[in-house]
Amino acid sequence: MTRILSALVLLPVVVGAIWFLPPWGTLLLALVAAVLAFSEYRTIALALGLSVPAGVAGTAVALCAYAMWIGDRWVDGSSSFRSGGSSMEVWSSPFLQANLVALILMSAFIVVGAMSVARGRPAPGVLADAGATLFAPIYIGVPLGALAWVRADRRFPDAVAGDTVTVPWDGRAAVLLLLAIIVVSDSAQYYCGRTFGKRPLAPTVSPKKTVEGAIGGLVFGTVATMIGGHYVFGSPIWLLALLGAAISLLGIVGDLFESLLKRSAGVKDSSNLIPGHGGVLDRIDSWLFAAPVYYVFVRFVA
Length: 302
Prior knowledge:
Blueprint: H1 2-20, H2 23-47, H3 54-70, E1 73-75, E2 79-83, E3 86-90, E4 95-97, H4 101-119, H5 126-151, E5 155-157, E6 164-166, H6 171-196, E7 200-202, E8 206-210, H7 211-232, H8 237-265, H9 280-300
Antiparallel strand pairs: 1-4, 2-3, 5-6, 7-8
Helix pairs in contact: 2-3, 2-5, 3-4, 3-5, 4-5, 5-6, 5-9, 6-7, 6-8, 7-8, 8-9
């Protein structure tokens, strides 16, 4: 009952922010989720005996999410100014806003390396600490920022100077489609595994997951993508089938990866923040692995 009540509270908030607020609303939602998920990630890292500097890694997570959201978009190159009491407008070609994720990661790499040297204490865990710190923005910040990017309004320059063309798909529907695919796949894994499950999928990582459940999640997730993607993107069915299969499989991998982290750290849930559901990381683990391939599809294919 607690699990259902939590879902009834969170679902309208998430869907409402994505659908009714401007694109920055989804960015804000992604940043809040990124900060909370990073806090839980850091707790798991500490349980594993790893040192993850909250300031450096947390800042890198937030900046990577923001950089993903703002990058790879066309910006109007026009500008206006006043001169001698009259207004003048100068038009220049639109330009593609650079994606600064690589710059942020390289900066974080330098800072983390410098901090390791500054400690001046050789230790077996130096490389593990640095790796865990730099993994945080890649694991959490980049995927959530990619999801927020999908929601943002996209306009591209036309052949005629000053004209723009809006992409044919709705960013709100595109984000909600990914969330729906993950929910459908997760639900199918649970019910198919409960009904038909006999062979364990990864017994040492997640004993309750079964091969039959994974197959059910793959099938239903793929079908959901084919149906929903037809209305959102209008892409060929075979392409949507490949996308759905990739999202479903990566969602399973993301779930198992987070389970592996928790089991290695000896914890059941990443936190108790969401009653009946565990922590934020427990809720978005599938999205973190599925979002990058969805971003690539939307950015380069759709």
